[in-house]
Design goal:
The complex is a heterotrimer of chains A (297), B (328) and C (320).
Chain A: H1 2-6, H2 8-30, H3 60-96, H4 98-113, H5 116-124, H6 131-158, H7 161-168, H8 173-181, H9 186-210, H10 220-229, H11 242-265, H12 268-283
Helix pairs in contact in A: 2-3, 2-11, 3-4, 3-6, 3-9, 4-6, 5-6, 6-9, 7-8, 9-10, 9-11
Chain B: H1 2-28, H2 33-41, H3 47-56, H4 64-76, H5 91-126, H6 131-146, H7 149-163, H8 183-219, H9 223-230, H10 235-272, H11 278-287, H12 291-319
Helix pairs in contact in B: 1-12, 5-8, 5-10, 5-11, 5-12, 6-8, 7-8, 7-10, 8-10, 9-10, 10-11, 10-12, 11-12
Chain C: E1 7-18, E2 21-33, E3 38-42, H1 49-56, E4 64-73, E5 76-77, H2 83-89, E6 94-97, H3 111-122, H4 127-140, H5 157-168, E7 175-179, H6 187-204, E8 207-212, H7 215-221, E9 224-229, E10 232-238, H8 239-245, H9 249-256, H10 296-300, E11 306-309, E12 312-314
Parallel strand pairs in C: 3-8, 3-9, 6-7, 7-8
Antiparallel strand pairs in C: 1-2, 1-4, 4-5, 9-10, 10-12, 11-12
Classes of the chains: A mainly alpha (297), B mainly alpha (328), C alpha/beta (320).
Amino acid sequence: MSPLLKNRSALAGLGILAVFAVLALLGPWIVGDPLAFVARPHEPPSTEHWLGTTGQGQDVLAQLVVGTRITLAVAFVTGVLVTMFGALIGTAAAYFGGRIENALSLLTNVFLIMPGLPLAVVIAVYMPAGPVTITIVLVITGWAWNARLLRAQALSLRERDFVMAAIVGGESHLRVIVCEILPNMTSLLVSCFISATIYALGAQVGLEFLGLGDISMVTWGTMLYWASNDAALLTGSWWMFVPTGLCVALVGFALVLINFAVDELSNPRLRAERAWRGRLRREGVRVTASTPVLRKR
Amino acid sequence: MSYVLRRLGFYVVAAWVAVTMNFLLPRMMPGDPATAMMARFEGQVSPEALEALRETFALTDDPLWIQYIQYVRNTFAGDLGISVAFFPAPVTDVIGTGLMWTCVLAGSALVISFTLGTILGVISAWRRDSPWWGRMLPPALALLGAFPYFWLAMLALWLFGFTLGWFPLRHAYGDAYDPGWNLPFLVSATKHAILPAATIVLATLGNWLLRMRNNMISVLGEDYIALARAKGLADHRILIHYAARNAVLPSVTGFGMALGFVVSGSLLTEIIFAYPGQGYLLIQAVRTQDFALMQGLFLAITFAVLAANWIVDVLYMWLDPRTRSSRS
Amino acid sequence: MNRSTVLSVRDLHVEYLTETGSVRAVEGVSFDVEPGEVFGLAGESGSGKSTIAKAVLRILEAPAVITGGSVLCQGQDVLDLDEAGLQRMRWRKAALVFQSAMNVLNPVMTVGEQLCDVLVAHRPIAQPLATDRAAELLRLVGIDAHHLRSYPHQLSGGMRQRVVIAMALALDPPLLIMDEPTTALDVVVQREILGQLAELQAKRQFSILFITHDLSLMIEFSSRIGIMYGGRMVEVASAGGIATSAQHPYTRGLLRSFPSLRGPRRTLTGIPGTPPDMRNPPPGCPFHPRCPEALGLCRSEVPELRPLHRNHHAACHVLQ
């Protein structure tokens, strides 16, 4: 954890996330009722309403802050579930091999290749509108990506000596998977979790924009739904959608930064290369494709 | 050759899964979908719509497997039911109107984005030291890719359409023109496609670039690159023929999977621009609880994605000689 | 060093810069390769021998840095050359045959294209002529010319290695550097290839810098041998000299570790201990922690390579 904190990329990402976490936890107590009618609709930002009002006369800032909680909660929970399912199926496929692997691989590939949004739509319409439905639907459409990645890694780990030793030593299948294989995949699991959360955030907003979320709840996605419905573009009410999109992008970007950092940390070759480049630059030696000569004697 | 056939087999399986899901989903809910629809619409569903729905889903009193066979038969005969949103047009007709536009928009945006992203990725990997290519461009594009596609579309539409008036605001072509192979129509169609396509390209560019960049970096560490350098070959020859030609392979295999994501994003973009493709139909279907149309769209889009994947596989065969011949 | 020395390495130092400090892979290594001879470079993995092979052509990857010395390839110091000079000299003055020929050939280009590549890059030559020459090169190593149109994955391991050797001979270099050329192959194929190589070498009179960890193979194949340990050269002598009268404790330990097919049965003894951590090499002689004859001096002072008798050098305090 501590080398992560020293990495600039990770620090920036974590910082941004911390701000949103605070908003999510404490925000609703600070701002007013997001659904209350507070002023004329389509009002631009002013000193009273920093982000103006929606097409229904509600305070945009209040909605943005209150919506943080559900949006982020769904994103993170989905991220966790997607990673869990992906890990379970991916490692099971790698571990058991043979026909089980073929069947699970086929299942994974089928889900991977089906376009997510149409599938999400046809499942979600048969379920009651709301964040729980969205979570379930996102997990169904999103688990396959991680499963494939994790299976590849688990495959290479399965061949390693310590895993063979554990199997020969008589450990149960579950124990081998949970105690020997998974712990050695931590950096990949973390990376998968972050990617899954990024996906969940964007996909959630997309589904809610379509109207499949609970439109009576306040989330970033439903805000965009209402913005579109209330002709934000036609009336030039940019405040109704621009801040919301910026927030989604910021959170997404923060997660990407953390992912970059995790990638770098788990790849010692990259770190060594960086140190090498830094040293050469300091000595004034040009970095070319050939081995540099740095005379010390 | 067997590679291509195996892939085809896989796509057939995937298609079958999609059809089966369409069949099972309405039946997995408690009660009868018609009743559920009634509940949602609070009794406002017309008897015709109900009948149409029953027919579409082969909701008869026969045992499940007979219903299934009937449903599959219907699907392959091209009968996907009657649309509620565009009642009484058959779903296949409704989908047909939008399919071409989606293919044109998503297709062209994808090709541009993939090509541009891949080329930029190669440069970004080769010039890892330069501050722009190596250290600023990747995070900048990652940030761009973090915005939801349709939000970028909204921003683009508001900025360039409404505020600056540089591009048309909606639809695939101006109302004054006749669709067909005539120049004024084609010009208008292109003008209408620029903004939506640009949005999709911008949103997806970063993904291709980063992917190609990572591929290049790992390929550049391979032994055959070291040997190519030792042979004293020119930089550009190594870059293109030795590095890029190998690095592009995982990008192409990944293309198929990314296709699903890109198509999803482009559907939402279509909605913003009121572009008359599958996306526009999708939102109409959701708004009117038109299950038949939704499921029809799901099938159509899935089949299109599968077909595109297969085309990419054939292309891959041409790119990677290892898939062509059997090992000696 | 006489005028026509094909390769003259003097006091070469190579380091790998990492986050946690530098790894000193090659420390002050000097040796010469004369025209027409096979110079073998032996040592355990981690002794620095592969690093030297790549350093001669300066194709070591990051985070390697050459920190001192000179590498004179037919009189020209490789360490002083710029990119353009390096590109010109590579393959013409010295060619490289890698270990693991599996990954050494570009999987998406045919064998013919890869052979013609190097011909076209160094000489203005028309394509058909290049193709002819490529076919000739293949025949030289016993491969049928129709394989010009084959892809690497269609060839067996032994054939691929032959292609790599053919490629190395494309510009008739005076020096061939071979890094573990046959390690990945089975013994029978190994013999064939080395036999063919010996024939070619006798005919064309190029020198070979032959790098391997297989000492018995090297004794058979080389004219002179240099033994490396912990990044340093510890003994240099003729192959016969090493085989019969090795002086350095490490070399003697190595020889005792192999059984011989003929001769009396004897107990095999290895060398106790493990190779040094090159991040923190021990002070003084790198071998002293494992040396049965170590003196007090060995712990503090690095022994230099000194002549013991004609054409036999060793770096050991005990022998001096």
